[in-house]
Amino acid sequence: MTVKQYLLDRMKNGTIHLTLIDPDKQTPEEAAEIALKVRNAGTDAIMIGGSTGVTRENLDATAKAVKESAELPTIYFPAGPQALSKEVDSIFFMSMVNSADPFYVIKAQAGAAAYIKKLGIEPISMGYIIIAPGMKVGEVGKADLVQQDEYDKAIGYALACEMLGMDFVYLEAGSGADTPVPLAMITAVRQAISIPLIVGGGIRTPEAAKAARKAGANAVVTGTFVERCKDDELLKSVIKASKSI
Ligand code: 1GP
Fold this sequence. Notes:
Strand content: 15-25%
Shape: globular
Number of helices: 10
Largest sheet: 8 strands, parallel, barrel
Bound molecules: SN-glycerol-1-phosphate
Number of strands: 8
CATH class: Alpha Beta
Number of domains: 1
CATH superfamily: FMN-linked oxidoreductases
Mean pLDDT: 95
Strand order of the largest sheet: 1-2-3-4-5-6-7-8
């Protein structure tokens, strides 16, 4: 089964949880430990990526270690075409649709597409929309940020992604954001589109995870929280709150 089909199947039963692991933030061994922990807590798949510092070497090593320990599908979450690995099962083949720089909208993808095909990595098409504050990814990707009250703008981008044939839409407040994507924006976008909606950035409590799920997210992503959390029960409760079942 493809990773895309796996995600879609799981989403049929309710909101899923995705863990984001940044290869630049810990050793592959530590990443493997985190992956095992989140697998046992019920996460559905592991995204691997980060805005800066991802190299072919740390990506290869982290993807391999995570795969071996968690035995969950892995999805590369790229910041650009500078690093690629054949150790991942799939890649979010994504366009930062609100970037002011064509490189992040389509040029990077055009540069990497043939190589991804050659490596045989499954591409999962995704429209990536950066919501304020946007954090590092907004800066690096030169995002023309959608402000927190600009619901129609968010809907416009999301609907355009759907009409362009993308498989998923991701509303991203940015890793470590103080304010996650507003709940009313999640609901407005969810109601406007018919493809699955992924939400992430700044979600670090069971309450925030549950609220994003209830607002309409089909997948809740947590990265920083999972990497830093030393309390296994709290970790479990955030993952559980993200999921409807
Ligand atoms: C970033 O949405 C993800 O791309 C996760 O953000 O690190 O804040 O959980 P956090």
